[in-house]
Amino acid sequence: MGVRIDGLQYANWSEKIFRQMREGGVGAVHVTITYHETFRETVLNIEAWNRWFEAYPDLIVQARTAADVRRARDSGRTAIVFGSQNPSCMEDDIGLVEVLHTLGLRFMQLTYNNQSLLAAGCYEEEDSGLTRMGREVVDEMNRVGLVIDMSHSGERSTLEAIERSSRPIAITHANPAEWHPALRNKSDTVLKALGETGGMLGLSLYPHHLKGGGDCTLQEFCDMAARTADLMGPERVGIGSDLCQDQPDSVVHWMRTGRWTKAMDYGEGSADQPGFPPMPDWFSDSRDFSGIERGLREAGLGETEVAGIMGENWLRFFEAGFGPTQVAE
Question: Rounded to an integer, what distance in angstroms lies between the CA atom of residue 59 and that of residue 234?
Fold first, then answer.
């Protein structure tokens, strides 16, 4: 039995959305639980999730392992995997990497657009690569089983993370820059290196990452997915929708500016539209994954390849990436 997995969402969570996940047959979602929050603020966000798990036990359950995802699927629930889009949650303390993993965090980006203590973001004019602390944190993340995510990182930093990491890394939500040259999309050089080292790319449905924005057609997206599978290997590609469902436009301000600037950082897209861009009409919530599945078939991908992109590839990646490194006895 296959499983549908979304490699990244940051929705305004509600019972409605949890039920839509079930209606869409989505077996697991990597959810952003923190952007610019400190460690203590991240713990408060985990507390909020604990209340949702308590309130909707028939719909969602936390997953810390691939086995948890399988159990959620078999029980008709959606597995929730915690992730951070910034290293702010670990502050300047490498010891918090293990603590966060113990609390359930399974993905952490080394940067969010800007230079961090660990690496350079994709919006910086100069990419200095991994910092001294960044190299140490990569090693520690490898040790405990916290996946390195370079979705918002610069090219050099991403390539250095791929090289430094002893375990495959992820780019959970981005598309090929050759297809659409957004700052956040990734070069073929990065995608090839990611695929060759066993990493995973989650193809993004966020309009700023799509060719033509919200006007991108399902066929264009699925044709791009097929080309990316040829480039990286079909087993290295999944979906990371970057769906921000039901979020108010004010959330964009928090995502873009955090606490680092007083001005509005509009990021990708027009400064005249600081809010969320309109989604393509073929994807508005988790119930629309079936359409992508059909589109991938129509793009010429085989059933095994389609099942992989829709979730099985992520599940195998979870299996390899979420546990601590094994020490020989």
Answer: 30
